[in-house]
Design brief:
The chain starts with a helix and ends in a 15-residue tail after the last strand. A two-stranded antiparallel ribbon has the order 1-2. The protein is elongated. A hairpin with a 2-residue loop joins strand 1 and strand 2. 71% of the residues lie in helices and 1% in strands. By secondary structure, the protein is mainly α. The chain is built from 15 helices and two strands. It is found in: Membrane. It is a multi-pass membrane protein. It holds the Pfam family Ca_hom_mod. Belongs to the CALHM family. This is Calcium homeostasis modulator protein 1.
Length: 350
């Protein structure tokens, strides 16, 4: 059980690598599914094209949607897009970056399926066998006297070796269409590789600052959500411990105290645990207060402008404040010939 817990924590801390691994597994699964899939063309003019093109398009769409379902960042993106603005504005560039990142990972498995399907050529043969020009393959005398409808029915049977009688014509037509299909597959791979190269190599060269900003704040949104969930879990665990402990204290009355007085060591350990749980409550000890905090977190998240605690000015009183102010040229908020320093605070639009 500890090994599974360690593995789960490792996957959580390396989510990007984990998602890349998931995309790779999906890509291998798509290729394996196609190789294990028994392609059976209907060999009918009304259904050949629909079946062949459907096999080329519908499974990639399913893999694309599955990639979105398995990606945890989809919920983060939707939450950030739909949340009220409040005191923290939303940056469209961060949302676009997150959406593009999810889309790029989700496109890996569909791209593998399309490339494998085109390299195999069976669906391409099934879809376009009725469009062949029979004169290119010789033995035109086989179709002499046939009507156009009969010829289309004959060409539709080319993908099915059991239904087509003229094997030489079928082999020649199959090789011709499979060559075209493989050429389309290599062109597809070249186009996808070139597009990926442009996205990964050229985009940071033109918008490096904006790219770093959007990448940083997209990571921040994901980490903030995880930290908030972990804090809520810790608070809920501590709240339950304290609530149950107080419940048993109220029920047992004085008996539980007499029992604890006979075992001082165990009593001290329990008290230490209770104090730790009290600290984890962070002063929130009522159901309504917690519900209010959760509503406020969704409706109005805090602004991303952290302030440093004024230890000398607030905690030590006005005496230290005036002394430090006199040294620095500040007395009760006024300066004496000392140039005031300006501080820039970055307010994010996330």
């Amino acid at each position: 059980m500890d090994k599974f817990r360690m593995m789960f924590q490792f996957l959580q801390s390396n989510q990007e690598s984990f998602m890349n691994g998931i995309c790779g597994i999906m890509a291998l699964a798509s290729a394996q599914m196609y190789s294990a899939f028994e392609f059976s063309c209907p060999c009918m003019p009304e259904y050949n094209y629909t079946y062949g093109i459907g096999l080329l398009i519908i499974p990639p769409i399913w893999f694309f949607m599955l990639g979105f379902v398995l990606n945890n960042n989809v919920s983060v993106l939707a939450e950030e897009w739909k949340r009220p603005t409040g005191r923290r504005r939303k940056d469209p560039s961060v949302l676009r970056y997150m959406f593009c990142s999810i889309t790029q990972r989700s496109l890996i498995a569909p791209a593998v399926w399309v490339s494998v399907t085109l390299m195999d050529g069976k669906s391409f043969l099934c879809a376009f066998s009725v469009n062949l020009d029979i004169e290119r393959f010789g033995n035109y005398s086989l179709v002499n006297g046939m009507s156009e409808t009969e010829m289309i029915k004959l060409l539709a049977k080319i993908p099915c070796k059991d239904l087509f009688e003229h094997q030489e014509l079928r082999v020649a037509a199959s090789r011709y269409i499979k060559c075209i299909s493989q050429a389309c597959g290599w062109m597809f791979l070249l186009m996808m590789t070139f597009t990926a190269f442009l996205i990964r190599a050229i985009r940071p060269c033109f918008t490096q600052a904006a790219f770093l900003k959007t990448k940083y704040w997209s990571h921040y949104i994901d980490i903030e959500r995880k930290m908030f969930d972990e804090t809520c879990k810790e608070h809920a665990k501590s709240f339950a411990k304290v609530c149950i402990h107080q419940y048993f204290e109220n029920i047992s009355g004085e008996n539980i105290h007499h029992h604890h007085s006979s075992k001082d060591d165990s009593y001290d350990e329990d008290e230490d645990k209770k104090i730790n749980d009290e600290d984890k409550l962070l002063g929130i000890r009522a159901q309504d207060d917690m519900n209010t905090i959760l509503r406020n977190w969704h409706a109005c998240k805090p602004a991303l402008a952290l302030k440093k605690d004024q230890i000398n000015g607030e905690k030590n009183g006005g005496l230290n404040g005036e002394a430090n102010g006199a040294v620095n040229g500040f007395v009760k908020g006024h300066t004496h010939g000392v140039e005031k320093k300006e501080w820039a605070v970055y307010y994010s639009k996330v």
